Amino acid sequence: MKIQQNISLKSYNTFGIEALARYFVEITTIQDLREVLQKENYPDKIVLSGGSNVLITNNLNALVVHINIKGITILSDDDNSVILKVMAGENWHDLVIWTIDHDYGGLENLSLIPGNVGTSPIQNIGAYGVELKDSFVSCEAMDVSTQQFITFSKSDCKFGYRDSIFKNTAKGKYIITSVNLELDKPPHKPNTSYGAIESELKEKNIEHPTIRDVSDAVIAIRRRKLPDPIKLGNSGSFFKNPVITKDKFATFLNNNPGAPFYQISESSYKIPAAWLIEQCGFKGKRFGDAGVHKNQALVLVNYGGASGQELLELAKKIQKAVLERFGISINPEVNIIG
Ligand code: EPU
Questions:
Q1: Shortest-distance Cα residue to atom 25 of ligand 1
Q2: Separation between Cα atoms, residue 285 and residue 300, nearest integer Å
């Protein structure tokens, strides 16, 4: 374990933002993690995993701890399902492909989500009708102050839409070191109810899709809509889709009769933030090197030289415009640090 100084974080965040870490350490074992957390001469520590859900707005005058602990173990295996223990530093999409290669079902709709396994519970990653919580059993985490291990069950995690205990009361207190997932053995029951998947499969004349067919469909849809962070810096959806009350929704729909929406309960409705942003004229717009993606208005992009501050300013400009036009607040789903 080597603590380095003044390290560029450009290749450690998918926005591709140039920012320096005053100190930087890569962690590949639990032992190293424990040791680094015990170092009292570095009081400020920031954990960075896959870097796919952060906007770094300044140089970080702290010790950046990059979690890169690898490994996949089968904990149990019966006729119906397997339980996997996956270490935090495994790449999420590589894990999805590994499960498909082994014919374990459940993660196929979550193909091509950037980031690592250790951060997947923090925002309960989700796409195309499936969320991490659907396969999640538990996770192990190290308490930052005591270095003790704690197991969080599914109910402990308090999962919600892009939300968990790790974004709320447990924020900053734990480092997730591994995640246990329960996956199905065949015969699989793939979830193809999401409109875009249905039409993709129909176009390919696939009536009884395998989990690989679903994964391929999701990959094709995502490639069309979402920019590849290697080619164009981004962090997926920048904002969460806002949820509004029934009363507010009635007024909203009255003023915007064609607007898309999803009813999520008796009394609440979710509005696609992408639609709100597009209506405000931001889709495909560019301000210097910061911009809004041309195929998905929910994705902010870095054309190369944008700073975290510039992207943050653009995000604020969008929030203000949406609030003024629709009276709806939209909030970032990415973590803003710096
Ligand atoms: N829409 C627009 N303009 C756009 C894009 C979309 O008006 O530029 C409207 C369309 O009416 C569309 C609706 O928004 O029907 C929803 O769009 P989409 O299905 O692409 O989903 P989303 O709400 O924009 C969410 C997740 C994505 C996830 C997709 C698919 C959030 C914040 N985002 O996006 O997650 O892949 O659904 O399930 O919930 C991510 O979190 O990084 C992410 C990419």
A1: 127
A2: 10
Query: 3-class SS at 113?
Result: coil
Catalytic residues: 162, 237, 333
Residue 100 lies in a domain: yes
Please give the model's pTM, rounded to 2 decimal places: 0.95
Q: Which of 67, 92, 115 is the last residue of a domain?
A: 67
Number of domains in the chain: 3
Asked if residue 76 and residue 63 are part of one domain, the reply reads no
CA separation for the pair 53, 51 (Å, rounded): 6
Residue 102, φ and ψ in degrees, nearest 5: -95, 5
Nearest CA to ligand 1 atom 11: 260
- Do residues 173 and 90 share a domain? yes
| C-alpha 274 to ligand 1 mean position (Å) | 6
Q: What is the pLDDT of residues 237-261, one digit of tens each?
A: 999 999 999 999 999 999 999 999 9
Supply the CATH number for residue 251's domain: 3.90.78.10
User: For the segment 62-113, what is each residue's pLDDT rounded down to a tens digit?
Assistant: 999 999 999 999 999 999 999 999 999 999 999 999 999 999 999 999 999 9
Atom of ligand 1 nearest to the CA of 222: 36
